[in-house]
Write a structure and sequence with these properties.
about 350 residues, Farnesyl Diphosphate Synthase, two-stranded antiparallel sheet, 6 strands, globular
Length: about 350
């Protein structure tokens, strides 16, 4: 850890890509609160890459969930799905597929499915019986607009649509790859993945509840890390990755998944609600187990930087030009401001 800090060279300002719709993209840049080692300059244009990918993803999502009967249900499904966001999960899905020789058009249904799963997870997280959040991405949460009953039905519908969309919209991929990708998605979102992480998170709140750093890592790896893992690994599978490539990318995804949540923990206590687009400081109020609470803000930042370095090490054996998007995405995740 000390060596990592010794190699820190300067503050790097990364572009944060937020609030996007199928027709508009809002971009903002802020000074980063994390120090990361400066990479050699390359010709890879990360900003243009993100704009292009987000535009393609938003158009695909808009087409995947048309506003049809029952109108109210599909409105609720579209409300959160198309309300913007960083689109990190579908982008890493596409980037992993392209890294191993696949194509965006082939993996786009899987990438859309990953965003559907992410959307349904935040819709559940925001419910009064869960995290009880009224705002998401600077807008009212789904249940505040449509009510809890319709939100729950929209969650179920998005989960079902994610599977249906992969099966019916994917072209030119052998059935065994589709089955394997869907199996990964099912395992990593169910009782062995994100759902298990959510229940562990719910049970670890309160001033009197003692959580070890190992237990907290387990919670974060399941609640957040599994969705990143599912996105990266399913993209690699669709792209025809070898077993060795899949395992390297799995390790990469575990690093960036945990890193994502650690950064989230830090931002919750260092940023305002306006900057985050959701209520800030709620983890503190709920006495939730977080990295800043257990090891402090500075050590949390150091751990995120260490994970960033470890994630990029997993990509060292790949063609570095093709790996450039995932390398840049890892830096983007550790440097994000909301």
């Amino acid at each position: 850890m000390h060596n990592l800090r010794a190699h820190v060279k300067k503050w790097i300002q990364l572009s944060s890509i937020f609030s996007c719709s199928s027709k508009s993209i809002y971009m903002s840049s802020r000074v980063n609160v994390f120090e990361i080692e400066e990479e050699p300059r390359s010709r890879f244009d990360f900003k243009s890459y993100m704009i292009n990918k987000i535009t393609s993803i938003n158009e695909a999502l808009d087409s995947a969930v048309p506003l049809i009967e029952p109108i109210k249900l599909h409105e609720a499904m579209r409300y959160t799905l198309l309300s913007g966001g960083k689109r990190v999960r579908p982008i890493v899905c596409i980037a992993a597929c392209e890294l191993v020789g696949g194509h965006e058009s082939t993996v786009m249904p899987t990438a859309c499915a990953q965003e559907m799963i992410h959307s349904m997870s935040v819709m559940l997280d925001d419910l009064p019986c869960m995290d009880n959040d009224d705002f998401r991405r600077g807008k009212l949460s789904n249940h505040r607009v449509y009510g809890e009953k319709i939100t729950l039905l929209a969650v179920r519908s998005l989960q079902a649509l994610a599977v249906d969309h992969v099966v019916t919209a994917t072209r030119g991929v052998p059935p065994e790859r589709l089955v394997r990708a869907l199996t990964e998605m099912a395992i990593l979102t169910g009782s062995k993945g994100a759902a298990a992480g959510q229940i562990a998170d719910l049970c670890s709140s309160g001033e009197d509840f003692n959580v070890s750093i190992e237990q907290l890592e387990h919670i974060h790896m399941q609640k957040t890390g599994t969705l990143c893992e599912g996105s990266v690994v399913s993209g690699a599978i669709i792209g025809g990755a070898s077993e060795e490539e899949i395992e390297k990318l799995r390790k990469f995804s575990k690093c960036i998944g945990l890193m994502f949540q650690i950064v989230d923990d830090v931002l919750d206590v260092t940023k305002s609600s306006m900057e985050l687009g959701k209520p800030a400081g709620k983890d503190v109020v709920a006495a939730k187990a977080t990295y800043p609470r257990l090891i402090g803000i500075e050590k949390s930042r150091e751990l995120a930087l260490k994970l960033n370095s470890e994630a990029k090490e997993q990509l060292s054996g790949f063609d570095q030009e093709k790996a450039a998007p995932l390398i840049a995405l890892a830096d983007y995740i550790v440097a994000r401001q909301n």
